[in-house]
Amino acid sequence: MDKLSFEQTIAVLGAVADGLIASKDELTALDAALGDGDLGRTVERGFKAISDALQTNEEADLGKLLFKLGKVFGDAAASSFGALFGTALRKGGMALKGKTELTAADIADGMQAALDALIELGKAKIGDKTMLDAIHPAIQAIRACESTDVGACLRAAADAAQAGAEQTKTMQSMIGRASWQGERSIGQMDAGARAIALMLDAAARKVMSDGP
Ligand SMILES: [Mg+2]
Predict the structure, then answer these.
(1) Which has the closest alpha carbon to 195: 38, 4, 6, 49?
(2) Domain residue limits, the chain
(3) How far is ligand 1, taken at its centre, from the CA of residue 156, in Å?
(4) Which end of the chain is less congested by CB atoms within 10 angstroms, N or C?
(5) Is this structure's pTM higher than 0.90?
């Protein structure tokens, strides 16, 4: 399919929430290796709140819905990741204001707005071993995707995000609590980057399971 309908987008967001909640133990373990180990609980709280909000949603504008979900996530999951990811969703939502269905290019536009906001708010650069290192290659993969099929482009984005997350093992943490580890951070995967890869994987799986 070359567009996700409103209903499909809601279903994809629900699948992403379920997928991340199911992965909370893995994220806790990754975050504990470099940081304070709260990421699993953060994503569980944030995505549970998103899941609840989706079930009672009356918003018909996908951009406004994403903006609202960003607020919901940030309020439910008070932590640095919660604040950053909540802002990313809000800024992505602002970029998609007025949309009632999404093409792959729309998804890339929303992710780019989110990335720009994360760079500004988090003061991190690409290569600092953060979630940016999964988001950036995912956007590039969608832009390079030659298919008009949203599922195929999301699959490419998810694979690129996972390759980016793997690549963070070679990087030294330059920002946040993980940077206190210095060179000892090399060899570990960044938990935030892995979380982004899991989100895109859950989205790609959901879209492709619904078929063209
Ligand atoms: Mg943490």
Answers:
(1) 38
(2) 6-210
(3) 28
(4) C
(5) yes
